Amino acid sequence: MTSQYDWLPENLRPDQANPDWMNKADNAWQLTAATLVGMQSVPGLVILYGSIVKKKWAVNSAFMALYAFAAVLICWVLWGYRLSFGDKFIHFLGVPNFALNEEYLLKQGFAGKFPTATMVYFQFVFAAITLILIAGALLGRMNFHAWMLFVPLWLTFSYTIGAYSIWCPDGWLAGMGIIDYSGGYVIHLSSGVAGFTAAYWVGPRATKDKERFPPNNILLMLAGAGMLWMGWTGFNGGDPYNAGIDASLAVLNTHVCTATSLLTWLVLDILFFGKPSVIGATQGMITGLVCITPAAGVVQGWAAIIMGMMSGSIPWYTMMVLHKKVWLLRQVDDTMAVFHTHAVAGTLGGLLTGFFAEPKLSRIFYLVDNWQHYIGLAYGLQNGRVSAGFKQIGIQVLGIVFVIAVNLTTTSLICVFIRLFVPLRLAEDELQIGDDAIHGEEAYALWGDGEKFETSKHNSVYGVGDFPSNVGPKDGSEVQMTASV
């Protein structure tokens, strides 16, 4: 005889809050970590993008990030999650299905001692930030309507392939033993390659913008960057899927590597350009965060420092020196240099993970007793397991090649498809005007210094010339407002 409560996990009674398999501490940490990652995007990257661009692009840049966050969530719960982590369909993709089903959501997740609902939320914020990172390469010229189409298409046909192949237990690269602790491949290499590819198809910014593109608010940019950095506590600390010792190690390694990378970049800027650049330091921060991501919980602290030194110098070299010499890099207008900060740093992190991965730490993270997988080349040489070490490097390289190939192909096909319906790039007059032409809104309502504030249905109820009777001069004289920029 069936009961009305049979759909509950393990026949959990309605007067019970938690099934026996759930660990409340792990569940609480996983939800907290996911929220920290979500705050990296909203408001972190919303603020960072909105402030690091020219004033006329502040609203558009911030809104591209905000839209992507919302659109990804809806696509994720409807089909994206189960394409990435559902039942096996083919070696690199799951069976598409809804995730919004109580019977499914309240079961134990595929990893960790918490419900699938927590896993869906946790994995969503990673998918969302990947699309937002891609947006960084396209700021200042992509048609917003084209971006609205790009987000669900790229999530469906590109992100899910990488996530299933590398992170899902049934994925083919996961089965081979690839190490991608928290997204060096799935998120950063993917977003760097996809952003660069999409930037090629969309085309460059307006000539004036490309020649001079100063931030409109460096202090606000630092606020967004700070949220990004601190939010990485959840980014890497949440991936062991438990509140255990590996999470603690991953968090500490993350911040050590990031600080080292920032300082390395800063020193190089001083040595070669004579001045300590705030924007440069921010780039060094980002490359450090990206580089440590595939390795955070499987390397020792000294290795994290070495990785920070390399992530602060190698992407610096590719961005500051190599970029000017390589024809292809000069042809593509990558607004936020995501190719260097994410594709180069992500590739570097993946290779260094294959070299520095400590087998004992790998066993803690993967919860396996297998010495044939997850052993860095450095330890293979030390322990006489040279073939295993070289095998790990080979798997890491294979993962890099796979991610690059998938994102070059799918991103190109998506861009070609979208431009059949809407232009990928804004019209020239819109490129000259910016936010006001695209959204009918501007980031800064300033009067004086040649700026005009015009009434709009998007402005506040009491726009200029529309004061309530109890506000402003009583004699009907003109209200004069000025502000210095």
From TrEMBL:
Source species taxonomy: Eukaryota, Viridiplantae, Streptophyta, Embryophyta, Tracheophyta
Any one GO molecular function term: ammonium channel activity
A GO cellular-component term linked to this record: plasma membrane
Superkingdom: Eukaryota
Topological relation to the membrane, as annotated: Multi-pass membrane protein
InterPro entries per the UniProt record, alphabetical: Ammonium/urea_transptr (IPR029020), Ammonium_transpt (IPR001905), Ammonium_transpt_CS (IPR018047), NH4_transpt_AmtB-like_dom (IPR024041), RhesusRHD (IPR002229)
Membership in a protein family: Belongs to the ammonia transporter channel (TC 1.A.11.2) family.
Pfam families xref list: Ammonium_transp
Name assigned to this protein: Ammonium transporter
TM segment ranges: 28-50, 57-79, 120-139, 146-165, 185-203, 215-232, 252-274, 286-317, 337-357, 393-422
Subcellular location per the Swiss-Prot or TrEMBL entry: Cell membrane
Ammonium transporter AmtB-like domain boundaries: 28-444
Statement: the UniProt record of this protein carries the keyword Transport: yes
Alphabetized UniProt keyword annotations: Ammonia transport, Membrane, Transmembrane, Transmembrane helix, Transport
